[in-house]
Amino acid sequence: MNILEKIVARKKEELKLRKTQVSLEQLQQMPHFTRPTYSAKAFLEDKSRTGIIAEFKRQSPSKGVINGTADVVAVTGAYAQSASAVSVLTDTDFFGGRSEDLMAARVHEIPLLRKDFMVDPYQVYEAKAMGADLILLIAACLEVDQVREMASLAHLLGLEVLLEIHDASELGHICEEVDMVGVNNRNLKTFEVSIQTSLDLISKIPKDKPAIAESGISNVDTIVTLRAAGFKGFLIGENFMKEANPSVAFADFVNQLKAS
């Protein structure tokens, strides 16, 4: 069993418990459930922003603890100044995240991505109740019909959808119902990283689906290369979170990007 299979198996166990603790009706009664959402697609088109989807991530299966002390409100607040969206990990067992992190970050006026391993429509309702504006659907975790079902539900709830693919075999998961397509340069089965994955797949992504490069982006030159290839967004987490002060690391990176 590879790491992705372990994560998905654990996620299904978690969901069995969570569904007994909080019903769909209770989720729909939570304060954030009725709030108007922000459009990540619109923020990506905003030229005053960077195209960066900056991620708050405490740990990962491959790196262990990345930053166990960062304050989620302070860091995501710094991100919100010039990022196009903010991604918040809500998986606990493998990434050290929690739903409270996303709910705390909701104080900022910027699109929030719920970053988790979505395998059940229940999680879409959870995302809306937490205050998310868009969700991540990972092709490697889902069948094509599941992507359509969960993306349609997301739209019904006012959420946008980022579909993540890892290689050409997953291009068939791209459907009308998804809003953006992310290419994860990190193979979730081996955790090896290569920017070439994004460069190889960009020409195969429909032009009406903004393309987002994910993982392995640690310098401004990489963004310049990816942007020239056609990418609209760049999901970056570890590069900022590994620093003692992610807020300062993000600000420095943005200044370098503007100078380029």
Describe the 3D structure:
The protein is of the alpha/beta class and 260 residues long. It has a single domain, classed as TIM Barrel. It contains eleven helices and ten strands. An eight-stranded parallel beta barrel has the order 1-4-5-6-7-8-9-10, surrounded by five helices. The longest helix has 19 residues, at 3-21. It is globular.
Compose a concise summary of this entry.
Helix content is 40%, strand content 16%.
Looking at this protein, list some descriptive labels.
TIM Barrel; two-stranded antiparallel ribbon; single chain; 260 residues; 16% strand; eight-stranded parallel barrel; alpha/beta
Quantity of strands, as a count: 10
Which residues form runs of ≥5 with pLDDT under 50? none
- Secondary structure class reads alpha/beta
The helix tally amounts to: 11
Rg measurement, Å: 17 Å
What composes the largest sheet? Answer: 8 strands, parallel, barrel
Name the CATH homologous superfamily.
Answer: Aldolase class I
**CATH class, anyone?**
Alpha Beta
Oligomer: single chain
Number of structurally distinct domains: 1
How much strand?
15-25%
Question: Secondary-structure map with pairings?
Answer:
Blueprint: H1 3-21, H2 24-28, H3 40-45, E1 52-56, E2 59-60, E3 64-65, H4 72-80, E4 85-89, H5 99-105, E5 112-115, H6 121-130, E6 134-138, H7 144-156, E7 160-165, E8 180-184, H8 196-201, E9 211-214, H9 220-229, E10 233-236, H10 238-241, H11 246-259
Parallel strand pairs: 1-4, 1-10, 4-5, 5-6, 6-7, 7-8, 8-9, 9-10
Antiparallel strand pairs: 2-3
Helix pairs in contact: 4-5, 4-11, 6-7
